[in-house]
Design a protein that fits this description.
The complex is a heterodimer of chains A (143) and B (150).
Chain A lengths: L1 E6 L16 H17 L4 E5 L3 H8 L5 E3 L9 H9 L4 E6 L3 H11 L12 E5 L5 E6 L5
Parallel strand pairs in A: 1-4, 2-3, 2-4
Antiparallel strand pairs in A: 1-5, 5-6
Chain B lengths: L1 E6 L16 H17 L5 E4 L3 H8 L6 E2 L9 H8 L7 E6 L3 H11 L12 E9 L2 E10 L5
Parallel strand pairs in B: 1-4, 2-3, 2-4
Antiparallel strand pairs in B: 1-5, 5-6
The chains are: A alpha/beta (143), B alpha/beta (150).
């Protein structure tokens, strides 16, 4: 399995969590990360995103073919995130939330239940099944 | 503090492991990594390297005085690497240039509290930092970059 976990970029505050949109800063973060990804991704890949607006907007910076997965909404379990990825062949990009993505990374890399920090707009590129390798970690402020 | 663990670039064979030199490819790898790091490191940082020539040549790409630490030689224990880096109390940024699987063991311990060494490609580095949030000491992985991604 090759999997990129991508945390949504910086978002505005709002009473309706699902409707929170990216800030100007968040839009820039998403665009910068999308540019970096395009330079390094293979030709074919699948983008799955949480239904939350901030995840949809982050994913849209990379691709116009985004599959919305309700199971990736805020509060997703590590198992749900991994299962969503396993339903697709080839490289899968999952645009979701914290602490959910960090739980999935800890599960895949260390087989552990742990809170791993993933910064807003950052990607974690993993490969392999049990004890996955961390191929790359890039946050927007490092681009 | 910020801690950058950097694996030596690709090296040539030599009967004396400590005298293996970087290959042409290895020199290119470390030049790319160094360029990336120098754009993002603070103006002043501490640079520590294993006594092996390939680590010293890798560290040289940063153009800063190098402190050679015997305890970072190939086979270094995670505790030796963590102690040499001054983790977690040191101020500012510390770059440690050493070897595999030693750096991967230190990382597994620092980030996940685990024993199995993590993979690090030749010339690649991990940038981690520590912080306290809600009373918990946390380790944050800020970047993992290998030369083939630069």
């Amino acid at each position: 399995m090759e999997l990129i976990l991508w945390r949504h970029a910086d978002a505005e505050d709002g009473a309706d969590d699902m409707a929170r949109r990216l800030t100007r800063k968040g839009e820039k973060q998403a665009a910068a990360m999308a540019k970096w990804l395009r330079a390094h991704l293979p030709k074919d890949y699948t983008v799955l995103a949480s239904p939350a607006a901030r995840a949809q907007e982050t994913a849209a910076a990379l691709s116009s073919k985004v599959i919305t997965e309700k199971a990736l909404a805020p509060g997703a379990s590590a198992a749900a995130i991994i299962k969503a990825a396993q339903r697709h062949e080839g490289l899968v990009i999952i645009v979701g939330h914290q602490p959910d993505l960090g739980h999935a990374a800890a599960q895949l890399v260390a087989g552990a239940r742990a809170d791993w920090s993933i910064r807003k707009g950052a990607i974690w590129w993993l490969s392999g099944e049990a004890s996955a390798r961390i191929e790359a970690v890039v946050s927007p402020d490092m681009l | 503090m910020d801690l950058i663990l950097w694996r030596n670039g690709e090296a040539e064979e030599h009967e004396d492991d400590l005298r293996r030199r970087l290959s042409t490819k290895g020199r290119k790898q470390v030049a790319r990594a160094a360029e990336w790091l120098l754009l993002r490191l603070p103006a002043r940082f501490t640079l520590i390297a294993s006594p092996a020539l390939r680590a010293h040549q890798t560290a040289q790409a940063l153009g800063t005085p190098i402190k050679v630490e015997q305890s970072l030689a190939p086979g270094a224990a995670p505790q030796a690497i963590i102690a040499a880096a001054g983790w977690p109390e040191a101020k500012g940024a510390v770059v440690v240039v050493a070897h595999q699987p030693d750096l991967g063991r230190a990382l597994a311990q620092l980030v996940a509290g685990g024993q199995n060494p993590w993979s690090i490609k030749k010339g690649a580095f991990w940038w981690i930092s520590n912080r306290v949030r809600d009373g918990d000491a946390q380790v944050v992985v800020r970047a993992v970059v290998s030369p083939d991604l630069l």
